[in-house]
């Protein structure tokens, strides 16, 4: 696990963008697959990727985008549904073709249809050859995707109940708490772990405790993001505030400095 601490949220976003670009395949044998998180944390990273496109350093026109999760029960086209959010905040910004964006289908209202939609989503990821780089944020309660505390560490895409903490945190995107859906379809922790590289971005004091528990606490379903410790290629990009509760900070900085010059 590589832990990179930027001086500012913008610096963390720049480092995260470099980690994403370094993880995408360049051989041209198959189309790259980029896993996309929603929420505030990766917005700077998406802007940095957009800048790399403008500078001619990368082209996402042949890349497939795979969303982490979707709310259950929002009407199609709802502006806070994650398909709409990703069309707005990612496709337009990095030049990803809307027809290459896959989002779990949370539109059904009965469980069997949602279970079928979750299975179909796993199948879609398999058909694409798996995710090359999965971009992630972390919930203040340690959730990853919408895998709330208590999620099985090997879980696959499925319907989950959102915790009240998550619903309160996300109420800022809706007119009020009552409008926040109670359920979602989310990639499981096992699905996330199957991506070839994970890049997590976290900024601000509100994430400090969750980041420390995920990176330095025990691997536990109580802190779903602790599965990052299990993955062989994880890059965690933080700003100073989000890194403030880490105990091994000096080690991460030393490791990030690389081999000594001779
Ligand atoms: C988003 C997602 C969530 C968020 C997390 C942090 O697709 O699955 O895990 O990454 O809730 O949200 P922000 O970045 O808004 O604090």
Folded structure, characterized:
The protein is an alpha/beta fold and 262 residues long. The chain has one domain (2-239, 249-256): Rossmann fold, CATH 3.40.50.1360. The protein contains eight helices and ten strands. The chain has helices spanning 9-23, 43-54, 82-94, 111-127, 164-170, 189-193, 208-216, 249-256; strands at residues 2-6, 33-36, 64-67, 69-71, 101-102, 133-136, 158-161, 183-186, 197-202, 234-239. Strand 2 (33-36), helix 2 (43-54) and strand 3 (64-67) form a beta-alpha-beta unit. The mean pLDDT is 97.
Which key phrases capture this entry?
262 residues, three-stranded antiparallel sheet, globular, binds fructose -6-phosphate
Topology of this structure?
Blueprint lengths: L1 E5 L2 H15 L9 E4 L6 H12 L9 E4 L1 E3 L10 H13 L6 E2 L8 H17 L5 E4 L21 E4 L2 H7 L12 E4 L2 H5 L3 E6 L5 H9 L17 E6 L9 H8 L6
Label the CATH architecture: 3-Layer(aba) Sandwich
User: Which ligands occur here?
Assistant: fructose -6-phosphate
Tell me the name of the CATH class.
Answer: Alpha Beta
N to C succession of SSEs = EHEHEEHEHEEHEHEHEH
Q: Provide the spatial order of strands within the biggest beta sheet.
A: 1-10-9-6-2-3-5
**How many β-strands, per DSSP?**
10
| Cα distance spanning the termini | 26 Å
Q: Name the overall outline.
A: globular
Range of helix content = 25-40%
Strand content: 15-25%
Largest beta-sheet characterization: 7 strands, parallel
Q: What average pLDDT do the residues reach? A: 97
Q: What is the CATH T-level topology?
A: Rossmann fold
Quickly count the domains.
Answer: 1
Structural class: alpha/beta
Radius of gyration (CA) equals: 18 Å
């Amino acid at each position: 696990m590589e832990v990179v601490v930027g001086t500012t949220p913008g610096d963390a976003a720049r480092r995260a963008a470099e980690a994403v670009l370094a993880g995408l395949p360049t051989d041209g044998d198959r189309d790259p697959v980029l896993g996309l998180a929603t929420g505030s944390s990766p917005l700077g990273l998406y802007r940095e990727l957009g800048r790399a496109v403008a500078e001619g350093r990368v082209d996402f026109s042949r890349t497939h985008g795979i969303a982490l999760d979707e709310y259950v029960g929002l009407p199609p086209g709802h502006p806070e549904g994650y398909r709409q959010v990703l069309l707005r905040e990612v496709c337009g910004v990095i030049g990803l073709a809307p027809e290459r964006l896959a989002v779990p289908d949370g539109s059904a209202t009965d469980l069997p249809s949602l279970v079928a939609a979750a299975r179909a989503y796993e199948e879609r990821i398999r058909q694409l050859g798996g995710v090359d780089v999965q971009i992630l944020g972390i919930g203040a309660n340690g959730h990853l995707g919408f895998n709330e505390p208590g999620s099985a560490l090997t879980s696959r895409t499925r319907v989950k109940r959102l915790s009240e903490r998550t619903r309160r945190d996300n109420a800022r995107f809706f007119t009020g708490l009552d409008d926040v859906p109670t359920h979602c379809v989310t990639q499981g922790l096992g699905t996330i772990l199957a991506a070839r590289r994970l890049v997590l971005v976290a900024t601000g004091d509100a994430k400090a405790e969750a980041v420390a528990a995920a990176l330095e606490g025990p691997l536990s379903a109580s802190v779903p993001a602790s599965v990052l410790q299990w993955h062989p290629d994880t890059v965690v990009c933080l700003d100073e505030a989000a890194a403030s509760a880490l105990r091994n900070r000096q080690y991460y900085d030393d490791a990030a400095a690389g081999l000594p010059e001779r």
